[in-house]
Amino acid sequence: MNDFLERLDELLKPVNERMRTFDRAQLVRYVAIYMLVAGIFSVCGGIALFAGGALAGFGSIFGSAALQSAAENSGANQQDLNEAARALSEAGAFSGIAIIWGILSLIAAPLLILAAIGLFQRLAWGRNAAVLAFLVNAFTSLIGLLTGGGIFNLVWVLVSAYLAYFFYRDPDLKAEFK
Predict the structure, then answer these.
(1) From CA 107, how far away is CA 50, in angstroms rounded?
(2) Quick check: is 161 in a domain?
């Protein structure tokens, strides 16, 4: 692990040098504000994703029952039935991904808010909580990226992963905490 981090230090040397020009107290304050806002958005987004996924799942279940009934009781066109079945399977897939992503967002939210509190108060565990929160945030953004989330998810994966690394490795930043 230490060898990996040393190689990462060498790879990220230009970025690290630029980051070292920022005032550490101000950086911690900005990151704490970001984590507080991200935690609030994670609660809202997690609830919306979970509810949307659950509704899509119920719609998929009830829709497949209706489709089965239509196939048995009417002379519906087979092509139309196949298209409806494909749409229902896509809704079911979305349902599962949205529920998992919503649960991960709801898990990350209190961690982000707790880390923000620790950072505001400059407590030692706040830095460690920030590292963990950044890693969880990078993971949830990666899930969003892999499910078609777009360029913003890629940016959040990279930013969160870098900040986790920087908060873990930077000696001047470690000195900011009690």
Answers:
(1) 12
(2) yes
Express each pLDDT in 68-108 by its tens digit: 666 666 666 667 667 777 777 777 777 888 888 888 888 88
Are 44 and 102 a contacting pair, CB within 8 Å?
no
- The domain tally of the chain equals 1
Q: In terms of DSSP H, where are the helices of the chain?
A: 2-11, 13-19, 24-73, 78-120, 124-146, 151-169, 171-175
Tell whether 2 is covered by a domain.
Answer: no
Distance CA 88, CA 65 (A): 10
> Are the C-beta atoms of residues 161 and 135 closer than 8 Å to each other?
yes
17: in domain: no
- Distance CA(62)–CA(100), nearest Å, equals 21
- Quote the domain boundaries for residue 60: 36-175
Neighbours of 39 (CB within 10 A): 22
| In-domain check, residue 144 | yes
Range scoring the smallest mean pLDDT among 76-85, 104-113, 159-168: 76-85
**Residue 127, exposed/middle/buried by CB under 10 A (0-12, 13-18, 19+)?**
buried
Residues of the chain above pLDDT 70, percent: 88
Contacts of 176 (CB under 8 A, 6+ apart): 24, 25, 28, 122, 127
